Amino acid sequence: MERTLSILKPDVTKRNLTGEVNTMIEKAGFKIIAQKKIRMTPEIAGGFYGEHREKPFFGDLCRIMSAAPVVVQVLEKHNAIELYRHLMGATNPEKADEGTIRKKYGISLDENSVHGSDSAKSAEREISFFFSDLEIVG
Fold it and tell me: What is the Cα–Cα distance from 102 to 105, expressed in whole angstroms?
């Protein structure tokens, strides 16, 4: 089994779509083994997305991610990282395939509904950023 971090972004929580997105995740065979709703501050978002600090979109990213609550999750499934990235769809919802979370719920490139880890190393770092071992029940 592999684990990945999922974040349901502010555009999902503001529109009360958490349950609908969770249904898509579970119907795709993922097990949600940890989940909590939090309010990121710009500083927390900056710490989480620190690898992008020098990129021009960094400030907007921190502002967007702290605009409303998010739902952070740990998902478990064989090949979870690759399969969740496929379920999320392309970063730009307009270019995402039908049946993906971003195609169905994404508003724009900035408000694209979900985040998922892009590698095993990222998943390990991202999961430990938000969750202690006591909070993960697999």
Answer: 5
CA diameter of the chain: 39
How far, CA to CA in Å, does 128 sit from each of 18, 40, 48, 60, 134?
22, 15, 11, 24, 11
In the numeric block, which tokens belong to residue 54?
């020098």
Residues 6+ apart with CB under 8 A from 46: 53, 58, 62
Task: Tell if the pTM clears 0.70, that is, is over it.
Answer: yes
- 45-94 pLDDT tens trace: 999 999 999 999 999 999 999 999 999 999 999 999 999 999 999 999 99
Q: 52, 78, 86, 115: which is the annotated catalytic residue?
A: 115
Could you tell me whether strands 2-8 and 31-38 are parallel, antiparallel, or unpaired per DSSP bridges?
A: unpaired
Q: Is 78 annotated as catalytic?
A: no
Q: 34 vs 75, 83, 121, CA distance in Å? A: 7, 18, 19
Q: How far apart are CA 116 and CA 8, in angstroms?
A: 9
Q: How far apart are CA 31 and CA 15, in angstroms?
A: 23
